[in-house]
Design a protein that fits this description.
This protein is an alpha/beta fold. The protein contains 8 helices and 9 strands.
Length: 230
């Protein structure tokens, strides 16, 4: 464990943990303080002044990051036969319906996103017990229940992420990889933050964005000045 502690000490010495930074500066710092053998994910934690237990203060949505997430998502399209060719051409990794529904009932969930159509939601709805806890249940609000299957597949493959506030009032989202150029990390972070600002519930009182922290998988968190987003 000593090496980890040493690495962490070195990381902490490279920035002032008591300071808040701009998104651009935080992106550079996180790149600078991450020393992993793998390409670590860069994450944002945004603490909001909302009460997620109240339906009118639930903040959730989707955003397409301009530079993608750096992660290749595995997409399953649960569609009728007439839509199969469209889903395959758009880049879906798995395409079908009944055979995949049976596989999922048997516990198979080896995908990152599931896209389906309104007409088959009756069948897909029965998978809620398996898909719900894993965050895989298709939802019209996130664009994963749609007649435009090709667009939904392309969006998912091209850096579209879903986010929602958790019970503690925090949104956690991966916005790229440490190997990204600092400008790309910064632009992805800004895109997510601007989208969250637009979703501010009218019933939310007081400060909406309370704190923003950027970190990589193994790095300390770098505070971003929340006042930039009021």
């Amino acid at each position: 464990m000593a090496t980890l502690t040493k690495k962490r000490k070195t990381a902490v010495s490279k920035f002032d943990a008591s300071k808040s930074y701009s998104v651009a500066d935080a992106s550079k710092i996180v790149k600078d303080i991450t020393s992993t053998k793998f390409d670590a994910s860069v994450d944002l934690a945004i603490r909001l002044g909302v009460d997620p237990r109240k339906a009118n203060q639930m903040v959730r949505g989707t955003v397409t990051l301009p530079h993608g997430t750096g992660k290749t998502l595995r997409v399953l399209a649960l569609v009728t036969p007439d839509k199969e060719a469209e889903a395959k051409a758009a880049g879906a990794d798995y395409v079908g319906l009944d055979e995949y529904i049976e596989k999922i009932k048997g516990g198979w969930t080896d995908v990152d996103v599931i896209i389906t159509m309104p007409s088959v939601m009756g069948k897909v709805g029965a998978l809620g017990r398996v898909l719900g806890p894993r965050g895989l249940m298709p939802n019209p609000k996130t664009g994963t229940v749609t007649m435009d299957v090709a667009k939904a597949v392309q969006d998912s493959k091209g850096g579209k992420i879903d986010f929602k506030v958790d019970k503690a009032g925090i949104i956690h989202a991966a916005i790229g990889k440490v190997s990204f150029d600092a400008n790309k990390i910064s632009e992805n972070a800004s895109e997510l933050l601007q989208t969250i600002l637009k979703l501010k519930p009218s019933s939310a009182k007081g400060t909406y964005v309370k704190s923003v922290t950027m970190s990589s998988t193994m790095s300390p968190g770098v505070a971003i000045d929340a006042k930039l987003f009021t």
